[in-house]
Design goal:
The chain has 16 helices and 22 strands. 55% of the residues are buried. By secondary structure, the protein is an alpha/beta fold. The radius of gyration is 23 Å and the shape is globular. Helix 2 (56-62) links the parallel strand 5 (41-43) and strand 6 (66-69).
Length: 447
């Protein structure tokens, strides 16, 4: 974060400074008092079950020098009526001050956001100082917190943008209009909240509509709903995918014995061979999107291709781990929707080994189609796994779809015990579910 005095912050957000108004904030803002950095700002919300203001002293012990909140605290505090609105105003102000030397990239889609953001962040980092969303902090709080991590030398800012309602992404682009907007996919994630795929497409299209003047839309040529977003902008459009019309094409895909993809990424004028360190053919689409966005940002293909070969992914995204018993765990437990589960199951099937065991939990927010979508995933899993272990009653329709290959496990503890008693050398185990199912606890518990 650029250095700001407490009084200056109060003026920016329309608040009142309480305490030492000359204290300087020099480090990022955080919501978790334990994650405060020396010189940082602790943002305190008074919630239904906990009041962040009560943790101000802990934030101070972690290094925070000031608080943004709705009442005074033991630390110097900027007091405002609406903390959420003040956080947004502060973030918009900071990025606006840096705008002349900063390229802002927004990334959205029903799936692949975090993987693409990680790959793109690595590519842009090879060309200059880059700030990118940590994990999946992609909502109305996560985006401004990421914006506040920018500094005077930051050249690229990559913002993952999520949505659960029409208007959510428009609100994010109102904070900062991206120079480049990447739309990956229109699927059924959060279908229960949106009501239809058409509404999901409208929500994702808000990124294209919210671009800065002359901004570039980077669109998936393989998804008709995304490709149609070309009509939402008068600015430049770049496309990616396997389609012949794509500006960045992924060709000659092969997988190694661990399911890691290699391919040729070809533009209109050049090509590069890339081997990704990540598991799953679906990563190739993410990589081609990252290349298209990096090219729009002025980063050459060879620089991007080299960076992709060592790019790290956020935790719990097809994260491999060797277990003591000799089995291989694929921890993809961060989140799930029908499309991402199918991609993960394809990856499971591609990894060489003995038995393939899919440990699946509920996919949330699918609305009236939930049971049908779960059954369809179960049938898909049965064609790619030897055993489909279904965790929790909410996921039972997966077992219905998987038929005789399914085993139903009552809860996470039962799942851990069942796996511990059955896994052996050569087994490959996929763990995947929506975040609310907390199957990360199953993956963590396996030795």
């Amino acid at each position: 974060m650029i250095p700001l005095g407490l009084g200056e912050i109060a003026e920016i957000v329309g608040g009142k400074a309480e305490g030492d108004t000359f204290v300087n904030v020099t480090a990022p803002a955080v919501l978790d008092s334990r994650r405060a950095e020396p010189g940082g700002l602790f943002v305190a919300f008074a919630g239904e079950h906990a009041d962040g203001h009560d943790y101000a002293e802990q934030a101070g012990r972690s290094g925070a020098v000031a608080v943004l909140g709705s009442r005074p605290t033991p630390l110097p505090t900027v007091v405002v009526e609406d903390v959420r609105s003040a956080l947004r105003r502060l973030a918009a102000h900071v990025v606006d001050r840096l705008r002349d030397g900063l390229t802002v990239v927004g990334v959205t889609g029903s799936q692949g956001k975090t993987g693409t953001k990680d790959l793109l962040g690595a590519a842009l980092s090879a060309a200059g100082p880059t700030v990118a969303t940590t994990g999946s902090l992609n909502n109305e709080l996560g985006v401004p917190l990421t914006m506040l991590r920018t500094r005077a030398d930051t050249r690229f800012l990559v913002l993952e943008m999520g949505a659960r309602h029409v208007g959510d992404i428009a609100a994010l682009t109102a904070l900062v209009a991206p120079d480049i907007g990447v739309v990956l996919h229109v699927g059924v994630a959060h279908l229960g909240a949106f009501g239809s795929r058409a509404a999901i497409a409208r929500a994702k299209g808000e990124l294209v509509q919210g671009l800065a003047p002359g901004g570039t839309a980077v669109l998936n040529a393989d998804d008709p709903r995304v490709a149609a977003m070309h009509a939402l902008t008068d600015g430049p459009v770049s496309t990616f995918g396997r389609a012949a019309r794509a500006d960045v094409r992924a060709l000659d895909l092969v997988l190694d014995r661990y399911g890691r993809p290699s391919c040729t990424l070809r533009t209109r004028t050049a090509s590069a061979q890339v081997t990704l360190p990540h598991i799953g053919a679906h990563q190739v689409s993410n990589a081609s999107a990252a290349v298209a966005a990096a090219l729009a940002a002025g980063v050459p293909l060879d620089v991007t291709a080299a960076a992709l070969e060592t790019a790290p992914l956020s935790p719990w995204r097809m994260e491999p781990r060797d277990l003591v018993c000799g089995a291989t765990l694929l921890n993809d437990s961060y989140n799930a929707n029908p499309d991402s589960v199918r991609a993960a199951l394809d990856a499971l099937a591609a990894v060489e080994g003995g038995r393939r065991i899919a440990v699946l939990g509920a996919m949330l927010e699918l609305g009236d189609d939930s049971d049908a979508e779960h059954r369809a995933v179960g049938a898909y899993a049965a064609a790619r796994a030897d055993v489909v272990a279904v965790v929790g009653e909410a996921a039972r329709p997966i077992a219905d779809g998987a038929g005789e290959r399914a085993v139903v496990l009552a809860d996470r503890d039962v799942a851990v015990e069942w796996l511990r008693g059955r896994l052996t050398t050569g087994d490959v185990v996929l763990v995947k579910a929506s975040r609310g199912a907390r199957l990360d606890e199953v993956a963590t518990a396996l030795p």
